[in-house]
Write a structure and sequence with these properties.
The protein has 292 residues and is mainly alpha-helical. It has helices spanning 3-17, 19-26, 32-53, 62-86, 92-99, 102-113, 121-137, 150-173, 179-201, 211-239, 241-245, 250-262, 269-285. The longest helix has 29 residues, at 211-239. The chain is globular.
Length: 292
């Protein structure tokens, strides 16, 4: 990857690393549908001014907006709701591990539909190394006495599949759209979809009252959605879905690093080994031999 791609990859991982924590905080007061509705709305309100300030033209053809309508549901609304709902019944460590299956799904889907993102031995080895690293990294946070809901775990796995399939579809269908619009348009359509379904799915729709909940919602909306999706769609088209989705391996790694640095948490063997495997996996997945 180019230095710019690496910078965006790391920045995106840093932004999304804290998402599970803020989701956990927000759903302690409001429901998952309301959370996602507010989140994508603030995300859209962040993305739209950026597109307008950059004087980027919005697409005007029906086919492109149909594509973004589908992506708003499959790449934003559905996985956001499934993960938020899943976090009500399962530990965040389990969510991190299950979310790390996204690149494993992606490599197979991309191989079927993209000519420039085929299955290769380095990619397979890298993804396996990374998933092993995430699992080892989160071992200390897995409580054997906790009652992690099976249906909650299935929900996060389904969300990971939606992320993977939507990434490949977006790579296929949105290459002709300006980069900033790729990130903002799905948030616009997701907002419309969520405010239609939320009053039906959650009655009554609960408005946040606690300041910390508003902080969580604003963080998830402005940074975790508005800015992050613009970075994500750039990365998706720059390096391909398989390598882009490896960013999910950074989520638990970022949390652990922050804990060691700022919370003085101990650096145990599983943290060191898990981190080493994740970093190695990212290098392996992105390794391309020079043509001789």
């Amino acid at each position: 990857m180019k230095p710019k791609d690496w910078f965006i990859f790391i920045l995106l991982g840093a932004i999304w690393s804290a998402s599970f924590l803020w989701i956990k905080i927000a759903i302690s007061e409001i429901g998952p549908f309301a959370l996602v509705a507010f989140r994508v709305t603030f995300g859209a309100l962040t993305g739209i001014p950026i597109v307008l300030c950059a004087r980027t033209k919005w697409p005007r053809d029906r086919a492109t907006w149909l594509t973004f309508s589908l992506l708003g549901v499959t790449s934003v609304a559905i996985p956001f709701v499934l993960i938020s709902w899943g976090e009500k019944t399962i530990d965040s460590a389990v969510v991190s591990i299950l979310n790390a299956t996204t690149p494993l799904f992606t490599i197979f889907i991309a191989h079927l539909y993209l000519h420039d993102d085929r299955i290769t031995l380095p990619k397979v080895l890298g993804l396996i190394l990374g998933f092993a690293g995430v699992t080892i990294l989160m071992l200390q946070d897995l409580d054997p006495n906790s009652r992690n809901s099976v249906i909650g775990q299935v929900a996060v796995l389904v969300a990971s599949f939606f992320y993977a399939a939507s990434s490949v579809y977006a790579r296929l269908k949105t290459a002709h759209v300006p980069g900033l619009v790729r990130g903002a348009a799905p948030l616009v359509t997701a907002s419309l979809a969520m405010w239609i379904i939320t009053p039906i799915a959650e009655q009554p729709v609960k408005i946040p009252t606690l300041p910390i909940t508003w902080v969580a919602v604003l963080w998830l909306g402005i940074l975790g959605s508005g800015l992050a999706l613009m970075l994500w769609y750039y990365l998706l088209h720059a390096i391909g879905p398989t390598r882009a989705t490896v960013v999910s391996y950074i989520f638990p790694l970022g949390g652990v690093i922050l804990g060691v640095i700022f919370l003085k948490e101990p650096l145990t063997w599983n943290l060191a080994l898990g981190a080493a495997l994740i970093i190695s996996s990212i290098a392996v997945v992105n390794w391309r031999p020079k043509n001789v």
